[in-house]
Specification:
Layout: H1 2-15, E1 30-33, E2 39-41, H2 42-48, E3 54-56, E4 63-65, E5 69-71, H3 73-95, H4 100-210, H5 224-258, H6 267-270, H7 281-286, E6 305-310, E7 314-317, E8 322-325, E9 343-346, E10 354-360, E11 367-373, E12 388-394, E13 399-404, E14 407-410, E15 418-424, E16 429-435, E17 439-446, E18 453-459, E19 467-470
Antiparallel strand pairs: 1-2, 1-5, 3-4, 6-9, 7-8, 8-19, 9-18, 10-15, 10-19, 11-12, 11-18, 12-13, 13-14, 15-16, 16-17
Amino acid sequence: MAAAAAVDLERLLGAVDLSCACCLQHFTEPVRLTGCGHSFCRACIMEYCKGRQRAGCPLCREGFELKDLRPNRELAALVNLLLQEVKEAELETQEEPRPSAAVACDAQSSAGRRPGEKEEEIWDISKQLEVTAETIHLLRKDLSKTKEYASQIKSQITKDFCCMKEYVETQERNTLRFIEQEQKATQQKIEQTIHQLCVEMNRLIDIKAQINNLPEKHRYKGSPSTMDKITLDEKLNGVKTAVEDLKRKLEILLLEKYARQFPPAQPSDLYQETDVCSLSPESAAKNPEPIISSQFSQWADDVTFDLTRVYERLAITDQNRKVMVSSYPTYYEPSPNRFFISQVMCSQSFSTGCHYWEVITKDSDGWAVGVAHEMIGKRDKLGRTEHSWCVEWLGPKKQLSAWHWNQETLLHKEKPLKVGVFLELQKKTVSFYSITDKEMLLHTFEINSSNPLYPAFWLYSLETNGSLTLSHANRR
């Protein structure tokens, strides 16, 4: 009876597939995919999904995630029960006394069954090989489809960017042509006016030679060229403003729609700004940037924003010199120092000496510019802690104030379009200036910290696309 039970259990095991399609062994801690219902060993499916957030079922290719795995307790119980019964049946068979004749009969019977068992084992292995081969075929087919699809997408993206380049280049040519036409028209008007004035001047000289006192009615009043020049300036400034607006809109569109897809390793290269009407090297040499005298020139520092100390809804562009609000999270590498509020710090820190930098604030309705200790909390707002100091312009209140340790000092001054920060560590002070053609002091703090300090910034309201830009050291 025990032998018969063992044979029945072995037939049951052969009829019911209790082996994992990945390791081809009996299930160990079986788990079930909620989508397609197929089961695998937990260790096997975890290894299969290693490094992938989403994968396809090894048998039917239906997509799933690790969160879709559910323990298959019924299957685990069935495997354990059947294996235990087989072991017990084998033990009972070994312990039963058998006469020599029975042994000889069993040996003859066993010899008669062995070929069938061998064929069954070969059939099982063949079935597993067939499943494995089919899985490999499906994977290779998916790989081929993936390559083809990626090639199509790349081709479409290249075509789209070619169209955008062509459009921008066309607009550039039309804009430059318009400026050239307006300049020539104005030049012609001015030359005509000069010719008329020369004729008038010669006529007046002749009259003066005849009459000692020139009548008042013959005196020329005003210069016709003034109005022409004003008209040209207005047109050119209008064109310049339109180009700047287009550039800003393109930048915001790219950041909002595609920032999450950009690889994090090259953020500054992907967001390089290009001036549509930039000057050639020869023109730049002929038209250098104006040099403005500054009392802080000798302490000017080149500071840049830190990609590891910036909130995910702030996008850094222009070689890490510009930070702007983005409608979507920007993908950055994981960092334990990343802010949870709309703030960013610079990579550079200062512990001795004097240091100066400037920030363009005209493109934001709400901001704070200041310095902070490295250990400022990821949720601590600038100026609200013991070791952070700032000046702040808050859009809705339309007022400028200074903040330190959660204490506000109203400054009663207009909104500065550019802010200069002078950090004087020997005297333990930090001063903030409004920058126009000269520096106007806004406020000075006494610093009570001996730790290195970093330039730090805050942007108000994630609903509007405000930005701050670290100004290049053009002031001398």
